Amino acid sequence: MKKSILALVTWAVLCGAAAAAQNLESVLDSMDRAAANFHTAQCDFVWDQYQKVVDDHDLQKGTMYFRRQGNDVDMAADITSPDKKYVLFTAGMVSYYQPSIDQVTEYNAGKNKADFESFLVLGFGGGGHELAKSYDVTYGGMEQAQGINTAKLVLTPRSQRVRNMFQTITLWIDPARGVSVQQKLDEPSGDYRLTKYSNIQINRKIPGDVFKLKTTGHTKVVKPNG
After folding, report:
1. Which distant-in-sequence residues (6+ apart) come within 8 Å of 110 by Cβ?
2. What pTM value is reported for the model?
């Protein structure tokens, strides 16, 4: 009897693992199809930056833009609340503009460009099976996010350098469109950043100047690693 029960449990576990693997493949395939046809994306976002030590949530809102440039994907974030700020990732450079102090801080990704790109543009324009190059990918089942029945993917960075920044990254993928509607980046400290996307528009025309910082003639440029 005990052997029969053990056999049934083993069979159930194996069936569950096989189903999860099949579901994961289905989600990754949908992301591959979306990536093959991806040119641009535009969406509204809410960033929730949580700091565990002080139990504080810093909410920022705005509009985000993505575009494919050859094999790369550029990203621009126009933060409108609570303060006006811009974040731009293009040509391996991350630029952070604060109009209130008229200063741009530039980070040259350099040889770490792939690491920066892997989480700055994650879920928009990247193929599903491409994820396996940088992450161990686990299927977390179907879950409601932003009013959509999404596929939850848990990513563990393969790179120790990235893992020092983000222990795990969770994506909630809309299977129909193959894009992320929610994303959570968990830091080793217990801090996290949760991003919720809405009003997602795929392959609509986006003005080119969106991917340029609107600086002044007096803007100070700071390069911490340059």
Report:
1. 92, 225
2. 0.83
